[in-house]
Each structure stands twice: as structure tokens, then as C-alpha cells.
Design a protein that fits this description.
Thiaminase-2/PQQC, about 230 residues, about 75% helix, thiamine biosynthesis, binds 5-(aminomethyl)-2-methylpyrimidin-4-amine, Heme Oxygenase, Chain A, hydrolase, 10 helices, mainly alpha, globular, thiaminase activity
């Protein structure tokens, strides 16, 4: 899934947003739920709640990414479509992983009801599937969604982390280098689109980026039973 970094090689718009909204970004990628995995104090009932709810979330993420794919096919310049298609394959693997992991942890995936935060996040994804929503906004959201997980779980694998052995596989799922490169590719695509976008689309994309960060924080709160 290698692809050239877009945006002229300088600092892209998404990088400026990551700085501008650093508190929110840290709130999502250094959430107490993630920190508890990293320091080995994670409450297993929180982890199991997260596992079941995230499985449901990813099932809803697939149609959203299929819509991003559809949008990219109308606006394809540099092979974005192949990258997004690879993203759908990665989500398919993610769903298989959730099923295996759930049986390992005795979590019954059938019959789990989505909690309110999860429902709200999925409704937000649905709203981004409208034909009114520009490809630039949708691909920015997709980049942000994947990147929060990549940065969060990579942090749990860094030197000095005390992530329990039985959670290493979970962290590697999103924290591995290949997934990191894939997120950078998405970021390059988002930057390229944002550079060419009108001010109106750019500010809609920024608002969407902020909303994704807020939802990711709320999702972790929910996993800890704090919703
Ligand atoms: C809530 C959430 N955000 C992102 C991802 C990574 N696909 C996920 N599985 N769940």
C-alpha cells in the first residue's frame, strides 16, 4: 500500500491541524483506557466491552469506507481508489480478527447491542455517506479514524510499556509499522485533496476531523463504562 506522500513534501494541512488540536488529539491517542493497556492495569471488563462494541463499530465502518471508495472512483487522480480498496481489505481482516479474539475472551458477539455512544458515532459515519459530503471531507475522516487507533496502539508497544502479553496481539493489529505506513498514505491523500479544496470544504473537513477525535474519546470513555 505504498504511495507517494502528497502535498509537495512540506508540512501538510493535516499536520497543522494535529498541532492546532493537540489537546483533543492527545485526548484520543493517550486516553486513560489506552494508558491502562500500556501500563498493564487495564480492567478486563472494559477491554471486553471495548472488544464487543468495536466489532459492531467496524461493521458500520465498512459501508462508510465503501462510500469513500465510491467517491474516490469519481475523483481518482493518483490511485486513491487502490489505497481505499486496500483499506476495505484491512477492515475485512479486522472483522475476522475480532471474531477470533472474541472467542478467545469468551465475548459473545451475537446479540450485543450497540451502546449510545457507538450508535451516535455510527450515525455520524452514516451522515458522511451523503452525496452532499465531498470526497475531501470523507477521506479526511477516514484518515483520522484509522490514525487514532494506529497512534494509540503503537504507543502501547513502545519501549517502557507494560502491556500484558495477552494484549500484545491487539496492539500489534493497529500499532504495526505496515498499518503506520498505510495511515501515512491516507494522510498524504487527505493533504493532497485539502490543498486543492475550497475554504468551505477545508473548514468542513477540519470540523469533521475534530468530531472524529471527540467520538474516539467518547468511544474510549464508553469502553471504561464512563458514558
Ligand atoms: C472506534 C474505532 N476507531 C478506529 C478503528 C480502526 N479501524 C476502530 N476499529 N474502532
Amino acid at each position: 500500500m505504498e504511495r507517494k506522500q502528497e502535498g509537495g513534501g512540506g508540512i501538510g494541512i493535516t499536520e497543522t491541524w494535529l498541532k492546532k488540536h493537540t489537546l483533543l488529539y492527545k485526548g484520543a491517542t493517550r486516553h486513560p483506557f489506552i494508558l491502562s493497556i500500556r501500563d498493564g492495569t487495564v480492567d478486563l471488563s472494559s477491554f471486553k466491552r471495548w472488544l464487543g462494541q468495536d466489532y459492531l463499530f467496524v461493521r458500520n465502518l465498512v459501508p462508510f469506507v465503501a462510500d469513500v471508495l465510491q467517491k474516490s472512483s469519481k475523483d481518482d487522480k493518483d490511485g486513491d481508489m487502490e489505497v481505499v480498496l486496500g483499506g476495505i481489505t484491512s477492515l475485512s481482516d479486522e472483522l475476522t480478527w475480532f471474531k477470533n479474539e472474541a472467542s478467545k475472551w469468551d465475548v459473545m458477539l451475537h446479540g450485543i447491542a450497540p451502546q449510545k455512544t457507538n450508535q451516535d458515532y455510527c450515525r455520524f459515519l452514516e451522515s458522511l455517506m451523503s452525496t452532499e459530503v465531498d470526497y475531501t471531507v470523507a477521506i479526511t475522516a477516514f484518515w483520522a479514524i484509522e490514525t487514532v487507533y494506529q497512534k494509540s496502539f503503537a504507543f502501547c508497544l513502545e519501549d517502557g510499556s507494560k502491556t500484558p502479553a495477552e494484549l500484545i496481539d491487539t496492539c500489534q493489529r493497529w500499532g504495526n509499522e505496515g498499518f503506520g505506513r498505510y495511515c501515512q498514505t491516507l494522510q498524504g491523500i487527505a493533504n493532497g485533496c485539502l490543498e486543492k479544496a475550497t475554504d468551505d470544504i477545508r473548514s468542513k473537513a477540519e470540523a469533521t476531523f475534530i468530531r472524529v477525535l471527540e467520538f474516539e474519546i467518547e468511544f474510549c470513555n464508553m469502553s471504561q463504562g464512563r458514558d
